[in-house]
Amino acid sequence: MSVEYYMFLDEIRMISGQIVSLQESINENVIKSLFFMEDLNTHLASIDNLLMRCIKNENKKR
């Protein structure tokens, strides 16, 4: 086999490795984004509960 063929295969391996790294990076960012959304929903639910308690307390005072 020729040297050019081996160089071509080596370039294909490098490109494949970069694609795998890119996919892992994207997956990691997606997972971080999902965790962020989950945390945000939890915080919003906590704030909502706090506000509801405040409203109930205000209504009791009246």
Topology:
Blueprint (H helix, E strand, L loop, with lengths): L2 H59 L1
Account of the protein in words:
This protein is mainly α and about 60 residues long. Helix content is about 95%, strand content about 0%. It contains one helix and no strands. It is rod-shaped, with a radius of gyration of 27 Å. The model has no long low-confidence stretch (mean pLDDT about 90).
What keywords describe this structure?
single chain; 62 residues; mainly alpha; 1 helix
| Biggest sheet statistics | none
Helix tally? 1
- Parts with pLDDT < 50 across at least 5 consecutive residues: none
* Amino-to-carboxy terminus distance: 91 Å
Task: Note the beta-strand portion.
Answer: under 5%
Helix percent band: over 70%
Radius of gyration: 27 Å
Mean pLDDT: 88
Task: Please tell me what the overall shape is.
Answer: rod-shaped
Given helix and strand content, the structural type is mainly alpha
Tally of extended strands? 0
Q: Order of SSEs, N→C? A: H
Compact summary:
This protein is mainly α and 62 residues long.
